[in-house]
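User: Could you walk me through two proteins back to back? I'd like the raw sequence and the C-alpha cells for each, with a short line separating them so I can tell where one ends and the next begins.

Assistant: Of course. Protein one, sequence then structure:
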Amino acid sequence: MPRDDAGGSFTVFVSYAHSDNESPDPSKRWLNRLLEQLQPLVLQNRVGAWSDRQIEAGEQWDGSIKAELAAANVAVLLVSPAFLASKYIRNSELPALLMNAMNRGGTVIPVVVRPCLFAETTFKYPDPARGPGELSLSVFQSANSPDKPLNAMQEHEQDAVLLSVAQRVLELARTKPAAEVPGGGAAAWSVPHPRNRFFTGRAQVLDDLRRELTAGGKAALSGMGGIGKTQTAAEYAYRHRGEYEAVLWAKADGEESLKADLAALAAKLDLPEKDETDRDKAVLAVKSWLEANSGWLLILDNADDLGLVSDLLRREWGGHVLLTTRAYATGGVARVEIKVMTPEEGTLLLLRRAKLLALGDALGAAAEADREQAAKITQEVGGLPLALDQAGAFIEEMASSLGEYLELYRKEGEQLRAERRGGFVADHEPVTITFSLAFRQVASASAAAADMLRVCAFLAPDAIPEEIFISGAPELGENLTPLAGGGINLVKVIGEAGRFSLIRRNAKSGTIEIHRLVQRVLRDEMDAETRRLWAERVVRALNASFPLVNYESWLLCEKLLPHAQEAARLIESYGFDFGEAAKLLNGAGYYCHARAQYAEAETFYKKALSIWERAYGPEHLSVSTSLNNLANLYDIQGKYAEAEPLYLRSLSICEKLLGAEHTDVALTLNNLASLYIGQAKYAEAEPLFVRSLSIREKALGPEHPDVAKSLNNLAYLYSRQGKYADARRLYERALSIREKALGPDDPDLATSLNNLAYLYNRQGSAEKVEQLYERALSIREKTLGPNHPEVAASLNNLARVYSEQGKYAEAEPVFLRALSIYEKAFGMDHPDIAVILGNLAGLCEDQGKYSQAESLYLRALSICEKMLAPEHPRTTLIRQNYESFVRDRRP
C-alpha cells in the first residue's frame, strides 16, 4: 500500500504502538491526531506520510514496512511504554531508522505520548562500516519534554506539540534535496513516475512479480491498456527499492524512445559515457554496466513489440528485468497477467480518488450510500483502473457526486470516456484514445481481426463462444467468411485480435472475452449506419449458430444464451423485424422454457411473436409456432385461460396452411389435449389425443419418439379415468420406443419411467414403483438440474411411496424439497403446489401432527379454489380429504 504522497516527495514514517491509537477517547488516538496535522502538507503533495495502517489485506506487511523505512526522510516516533515494549519496533523498525539517520541524514523526532523510560531505554543497531552499535533515544531531541507527555497536557497544548512536529517536517522538506528521496536505498534511480498515493490492491500481482523475478530474473506484466501496468510496475519499484543497488526505467514503446532512455541511464549510473554524443555508444556502455553488475532492476515500460527488447531479454543478467506490455504472448519471459479490479478494489480506489474516503481507511469507513454508488460505477466501467481514476478526478474537480457521475456516464459516457482530467495518472491517454490506438494497430495488421473485435463489441462481454465465428461466419462479412471451417484460420485471427490484450481467449472452453469499455469505445467510434450494420450481422450470426433445442444441444444453448439476450436488446433498439431475428428469439425462449426459466422464456416468445406478426402477417406458420410455444408455457404454469385461445389460434393456422394430417397439426392437438387434462376436461381431451397419435403414426412410423409422446399422453388420460389396463399398455409401448430411440439419460425417457411407476403404484405393483421413480429422478437431476419442476414431480411421487410405506422420516424432507422447487419456479399459487401440500398434509395427519395438517389442507384447498374450477377433480379430492380430516382426526 502506498504512503499518502505523490511518490518522490519528502516522506515521513510514523512508528507507533497500535494500542496508543485504539483509545475510546478520540483525543487520545495519537496517530490520528498527528496525521491530521500533516494532512495539509500531504494534500499539497509536499510531504508524504506513511504508517502501517495503510497496509491492505493480502499485502506482505513486513516487506512494505521495510521498503518505507528505507525511503523515509523523517521518522516520527510516538513513544510510550507499549512502544518501548514492542519487539517488532525494537528489532526491525528502530534499527533501520537509526541507520537511516546516521548514514543518509534522516531525521528522528520522538514525541512522548505517555510516561515511560524514554531516557533510560537504548536500542542496538547494525552498522556494516563500524560494527554493531547501541544508542539511546534521548540523543534525539523530542518534540516535548519526556517529563510532560501528551496525555498529561491540556488538549490545546497537545495540538501545539503536534503542530510543531508538522512545522519541523515542512522546514526539513524545504531544505532537503529532492534527489535524496525517490530511490530510497538505490544508488541510481530513474523511475519517472511519482508514487501513486491512490494505488490500491494488486497484492497478489506484486507478490507474483517478486516470485518470478527472484526465480528467473525476468517477468512481463501483461494486460490491456488502462489496466494499470505502468502504475503497478512503479509501485513494485517503490516497494522494493531498498533491495536494489539501482532501479532503472526506460520507455520501450518505440525504437527511438528506447534508445534515448537507455542512453540517458549512463548519466544516472554516472558512467564515463554519460556525455557521449554518440547515443549508440552510451547504450552499449549501459548494457556493459548491466552485464558487469548485479542487484539492479530495469523496467522496460510499454514493451508491446518484444522484438525491440529482445537483446535485453536474451541475456542472462545479474539483475532483474521487468516488462510492461499489452502483448499476450511473452515468449520465454514469465508472464504475470494483471486483470480488472475486483468490485471491492474498484470501489475502494474510486472513493479514495474522489476524496470521499481518507487514504488508509478501509472500505467499511465510507458511508453505505457512497459504497453502493461507487460499486455501481465500478461495475459500469468494468473495474478498469484508468476509468475509475477518470471518474474520481471528475467527481473531485467538478464537485460532483457519485450518483450524478453515474447518471452522466450512462447518458453521456462517450464524452466522459474521451476526457482526460487531472487524475493521478494524468500522463495516460483517456480511455477512448487508449483503446482506439490499440484497435488501429490491430486493424492495420489484420482486417479480419478488426472485424472480429467489431463483432465482439455487440455481444455480451464474457464467454463469447467461438461457434459464433464458425457457424455464423457467412453472416459476418467477407473478412470473416473464411472462418466458417474453424481450425487454424480461426486461431490465427483470434491471436491477431488479442495481440494487445483487447480480447482474451480461453482455449479450453472455446470462448473469448472482451472488456465492456473496449466494446463501448469500439461502438463509440462507429457512425450510426455502421453500428446498425454490425448489430444486424451479429443477430444473423447468432441465429445461424443457435442449434435446434434438444437435450444434446443444451450445453451450446447455455453458452449462447447471454449473447441471445444481448441480441434481444439489439433487435429492440434497432427495430429489426426480419425472420432470423424472430427465429433466434424463439430458439432462446424454447431453451429457457426447457430449463424452467419461465419468465425469460415468456419475454423471448412474446418478442418473437411480435416480429413474426409484423414481418409475415397473422396467418403465417411461424406465427403458429410462436403461439403454440407461448401457450405451452402458460399451460405449464397453470395459466389455462391464457393458454387455450393461443392453442386454438395456432391449430387454426396449421390446419388452414398445412392440412389436417400434418405433424405440426398433431403437435398442437397433443398440446391442446394436455391443457384439457389439466382442466379435467377428459371428454374433450381424448379425441384430440387419438387424432394426434393417428397423424404421427402415419407420418412418422410407429417407432418414432413423437409417437411415444402421443402414447404417453393418451395413457396419462386413461390413468386419470381409471382405465389402467389401457394406460399400462400404452405406457409400456411408449417406454419401449424411447429406450430404443433415445439415450439412457434423455428427459423424455424419465417421463415414461415416472408415469409408468405412478400407474404401477395405482395398480398395487409396489415392488417396481420405487425403483422406477428413483431412476426417473436420477435422470432428471442429471439432465435438468436439481431445481427443475420435473425433478420436483419425481420427488413428490417418490415421497408418496415412502409415506405409503410408513417411512415418514424419509418422506417429509423429500416432500419439502419438492415444495421448495415448485414455489421458486411457479410462485405460491400453482395447482401442482396444491398437490404437494395435500400429500404433505396427509403425511402430517398420519403422524398425528393435526395442527400442521389442517394448515396445509387449507392452503392446498385455497390454491385449488383460486386456480381451478370448484368441480375440478383435484379441488374435489383435496376438499374430500380435508372434510374427512375434520370429521375423523381433528381434535
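----
Protein two, same layout:
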Amino acid sequence: MSRVALSLFLSLVPLSLFAAGHDVSAVRSIPVESFDASLSIDASIAYNGNHFLTAWPMAWNIYTSRTDPTDGASSAAYPAVPLSLSSVEQLTPAGSGFVALCRKLEESPALCTFDSEGVLEHRVQLRTGRSYRPRMAFNGTNLLVVDLGISASMYDLTGRLVRRVTLPVEVSDSYAVTTAGTDFIVVTAGKTGINEFRLSADGTIKGTIPVQLPVVPELHDSNLYFYRIAVAAKEGRIGMVWDQLQPATTASAVIQPDGSVTRSKLPEGDLPPAGSAITLLPTDSGFFAAWNASSADRTGLFALRLDDSGAPRESRPVDLGNALFSSAASTGKTIALTRYLPSFRPTSTLLVDVDADGIRPRTPKPLPTLPIRQRFATVAGNGAGFTAAWVDWVSDSQNAVSGRVTAQGEALDGPGIILGQKATAPAIAHGSSGQLMVWRADGKLVAARITPFGTTLDAPPITIAPLSFPGSATYSVTWNGIRFYVVWGDGPKLFGAFVRPDGIAEPPRPLPVQFPPRTGGADPDVAWDGRQFIVVYGEDFLADACYENCFYYPEKERVLRVSADGIGLDLNPLVIPGRHHRAHIASSGTESLIALDGDTDTTAVVVLDDGAHFHVSPEIPLFHWFLNGDFASDVVWTGSEYVVAWRYSVLMERAGWIGASAISKSGVPSGSLVTPTAGPVEGASQSVPSVAANDAGETAIVISEMAPPNYVTRARLYRVSELVPKPAPPPPPRNVTTIQAGIATVITWQSDGQDGFLFEESADSGRNWSPAISTVGQSVTRVRESYYRFRVRAIGAGGLSEPVLATPGRVERRRAQRH
C-alpha cells in the first residue's frame, strides 16, 4: 500500500470534511528537534521484515518513518494517525506489520495496527481503563499488555479481550514483556525482588522463577526498590538486564533452557544509571544491553555486549554519545536506538553495528523534517486578490510571514515571504500602494510594508513604539486613504500612531480612556469611516475602589472616536450593552458595524454618528453556539454589504465549520452561508477567523487549521462564494433516558447521525443549565448526585437542536433461561 493512500484519510475522517478551502502557501520544513521545547515526547521503534519503523507523537499527530538498516536512510515523516492527540506506546512487530497502543488524552488506550510501511490499518478502542506504562509483546496470535497494577491483559488483533490475569507483585514494580515461542515472558523488579513469570498462550501462569531475592534495607529507603528492567528471549534463553537507582548499579541475568540462572554484575561507565530507560536485545552473537546515564553535568548513553550467560564482553561500557534513548530494536546485526536531547524531544536514529568483533556506532541520522505550523492567520484585500499573514511557529524563532493569494485562491509566493523574527500574531491592512503588517517582537511594536509584488520594503522592520507590557499588548491597523493608523493596548493604556507610506512611524499618542482596558489585553480593532477612526476595545471594570483582592466585572466593550489627526474625541467612550469577549469593526463610510462574541452568541450592532448623537443599535442576533471557546468572528465591508464570518466546532480534535452572514447598512441580515473546514484548529486563540474583501467585493475568510495531507496547522483561505446556505438546525434526539447506577448517571438517547451532541446538566432541577460535554456518541456517563437534571441537544452545521429533557429509566432485568 502506498504511504500516501487516501484510504487512511477516508477511514479516519468523515466525508463532510472534504470542503472548499485553499492553502495560502506551501510550508517550510524543519528538523523534529526544532519543534516547540514544550513538547515532551517519546519515539518508539521496532524491526520487522527488512526495515525499522519509528513512530512518534507530535503536534496532534502520530508520525511514522521507515529506516533502512543498510544505509540508515529514512523515509519522509508520514502522519499515520492524524488528529489523534495521542502518545504511542512500545511499537511491536506483529505479523507482517506492527502494533502499538495509541493512548489518547483522558481516554482508555486504542490498539493501533500498522502495515509494513507504517500506514495505519485499524484503530480500535480497548474496553479498559487508562493505561500507564504499558509493556507488551505479540506471540503470533495475541497481544499481551502488562499495565501498572500489575495486570496482564491479552487481546487479539481486533481488540477483543481474550483474558485478564493479575500478577502477584507490587504496584510500584518495574516490568518488561517478551515472547518465547507462543509463551509470554513477564519479568518484574521491585520490592518482591526480580522475578520471571511465564504465561501460556491462553494467559495461564505456567510458572515463576525468582532471579534475585528482595532487598532488605536497614533503612526504609524507597530508592532501594527503584529499578528499570528489560527482557529478551533467544534460542530458549531468557535474558534480562536492570539498573538500580540506589546503589547506582547495572546487572544482568540469563535463565537457561534447563531453568538455571546465571547472574553478572555489569561494569560501571563514566556516569551512573539515570533510571529512565534500559533495553536488552538479541543479536547474532549474544545480547546487546544499553541504558541511559546522567550526572549533574551531562547525560550519556552506554552499551555492552553480553554472551549467552549474560556476562559482559567489554571491560567498560561503550559510550554512545551525549544523549538519551527512549526505544530500541534489533535486526540481529544492527541495533537502532531513538535518540533524544535532555529536552525530551526526539532528534535522530542511532544505528549501531554489533558482532563478535565489537560495538560500532554510526553517525546518528536526524529524524525526517516536519512542516512548520502556521498560526494566527489573518488576511487583507490587496486589490485584485488577497494578502494573508501568519506566524511560522518554531521553537526558537517565530517568523512573521506574508503571502499573496489570487481571488480564485491560488497561492503566489511559495512558502511565503519572511518579514521578521520572534513575531506574535500579525495584524494587516491594505493601502494604496501595498499592505502594512504589524506585530510584536523584542518588546516592541513593529511593522513592515508589503509591496504589490509580495516583497517587503522594511528590513529590519519599522519600530512603532516600545512596549511596557509586551506579553499582553494587542493591536490593530487600518488605512484612511493617506496613511496607516495603528492602535494598541499596552497595560492599562491605549495608544495610536500613524505610519506613513514612506515607512516613517510618527510619534505615538495616548488615547483617553476613563477605565483601564481588559487586563489580558484590550484586543482593540479600528476602522476608518471617512471622517474619523472608530476604535472598539475590551475592558474589565473594577467592582469598587479597592487595593487588594479586587473583583472585576468581566468583558465590556467600548467604542472610542479618534480624529483624522489621531486625537481621542471621547473622554468617556461609549459602552456596548451586555457582556462580550471580543469585538471587531468595519465601516461603509456612513456607519459602522461591530461584530461581537458573547458567551454563546455571535451578534452585531450598528454604530451611528450623525454629529449630534453617537450610539449603537440593539444587538442583531447572528449565530448561537454552546461554548465561547469554540467560536470567534470578524467583520468586513465589501462595498455593498457587511459580511460577518465566524468559526465553530464540536470537539477540539474534529473539524468544524465556517459561517458567514451578510448584513445591510441598516443592520438587516440577509442570510447565512456555511462550509465544513478541512480540519480542526490547534487552539481557539491561534485560529480566530479573519475576513477581508478585495476591490471587486469578493470576500475571503482565513483561519489556521490542521488540514491534510500533513495535518500540521497551516493557514487556509475560504472564498465566501464557495459557501452554501446554512442548513436548518438538526432534529432533536429521541428517547433521552437517565439511569442511576450507584453514584454515576448513565444518559442514553437515539438520533439519526448528527455531527455531535451537547450534554447539559442542571444542579437546581432545571432552573439553570450549563453545558457539560460535547460528544459524538449516543451515551455518556457522569458522576453526579441523583437530583441533577439532564438534557441533550443535537449539533450540526445549522447549529443546535431544541433540548430534550431526560426522563428516568430503569435497567431491564431478565430471568435466566431454564434448561
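Helices lie at 6-12.

Let me know if you want the two compared in more detail.
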